[in-house]
Amino acid sequence: MVAFDGMLADGFSMPVDRHANASDRSRSPLHGRRIAVTGGTAGLGLALVRELGARGARVAFVARKRVGVERVERELVGTHGVIGDISKKEDIHPIALQILGALGGLDILINNASTLGPPQLELLADTQCEDFEHALATNVLGPFRLTKALLGSLAGSAREGYGVIVLNISSDAAFNAYPSWGAYGASKAALHHMTRIWSEELKSDGIHFVSYDPGDMDTALHRAAVPDADPSSLKRPEVAARELADAVEIAIVRSVGAPEAMATALVR
Ligand SMILES: NC(=O)c1ccc[n+]([C@@H]2O[C@H](COP(=O)([O-])OP(=O)(O)OC[C@H]3O[C@@H](n4cnc5c(N)ncnc54)[C@H](OP(=O)(O)O)[C@@H]3O)[C@@H](O)[C@H]2O)c1
């Protein structure tokens, strides 16, 4: 399995190399890469759309609310917004088609959109079955369906020799049994394990699957989960986005001319 981070969920640490950081964005290996980010209008997703776009990537992003999608498109000219709900089966193919229509193919998919399930954390015994189902639909089935719908295009890109990555945003709740984080934690554990299996099944095709824990960030999702957390103790999503973009750049650089090195760059 491919897994990396500044703070990876299973304890692995990605080596940090600032060879192509924010001060040297014009030479970024992400320049021209076609990248799709789900949940791109707030929190980490929005920070990623900004960061990847600033490094010259061609970015499409997905979110449910039209007003947010249009706001980000206006702010970040050149990005392509897609309105859709990844938890809904019927939205997946329209989302995939719009991503491919906008970008003409895909090199990197970032499954970032997520939900806690219930509006705020609660013990499993108090969790509505429908809220648990919603967590699984958003955090596991959505990434599964979207990845599946985009696989042909990702495989085509891999055949052309690009470093192709599917990056699933995980959480330490996938590994730690935090009381009251049941629906979210179980869904993130399933996402993490699914990532490992995708990785085993598709690494010979040049499609690399990554499970990434960005760490605790000051976002709406975190405020819903832990309303009394001190924001100054949390990572800014912009910082997490920079770390993630740096790590992906390293992986791409190492894979040039040696696709198998992509995995070496990312695997612990
Ligand atoms: N925040 C943390 O401390 C933390 C810690 C560890 C891991 N993570 C992970 O990091 C990722 C980003 O979290 P965040 O805190 O940045 O979240 P966030 O601030 O709540 O932002 C969520 C984004 O996803 C979109 N979204 C939500 N449900 C969607 C759906 N069903 N279909 C399409 N888009 C959807 C939202 O826009 P719409 O509402 O318009 O759809 C919004 O753009 C998540 O995978 C989360 O589990 C977060």
| Structural class designation | alpha/beta
Give the quaternary arrangement of the chains.
single chain
Q: Give the count of structural domains.
A: 1
Percentage of residues in DSSP E strands: 5-15%
Give the rounded overall mean pLDDT: 89
Bound compounds, please?
NADP nicotinamide-adenine-dinucleotide phosphate
Count of runs of 4 or more consecutive helical residues: 8
CATH topology: Rossmann fold
The end-to-end distance, rounded to whole angstroms, is 9 Å
Query: Describe the biggest sheet?
Result: 7 strands, parallel
Give the name of the CATH architecture.
Answer: 3-Layer(aba) Sandwich
Order of strands side by side in the largest beta sheet? 1-7-6-5-2-3-4
Rg result: 17 Å
Features:
268 residues, alpha/beta, Rossmann fold, 7-stranded parallel β-sheet, 7 strands, disordered N terminus, disordered C terminus, binds NADP nicotinamide-adenine-dinucleotide phosphate
Structural notes for this entry:
The chain has a single domain (3-266), classed as NAD(P)-binding Rossmann-like Domain (Rossmann fold). 45% of the residues lie in helices and 12% in strands. The protein is built from 8 helices and 7 strands. It has helices at residues 43-54, 66-75, 89-103, 129-159, 182-202, 220-225, 237-255, 260-266, and strands at 2-3, 34-38, 58-63, 80-83, 108-111, 164-169, 207-212. A 7-stranded parallel β-sheet has the order 1-7-6-5-2-3-4, with helices on both faces. Helix 1 crosses helix 7, helix 4 runs parallel beside helix 5 (182-202) and helix 7 runs antiparallel to helix 8. The longest helix has 31 residues, at 129-159. Bound molecules: NADP nicotinamide-adenine-dinucleotide phosphate.
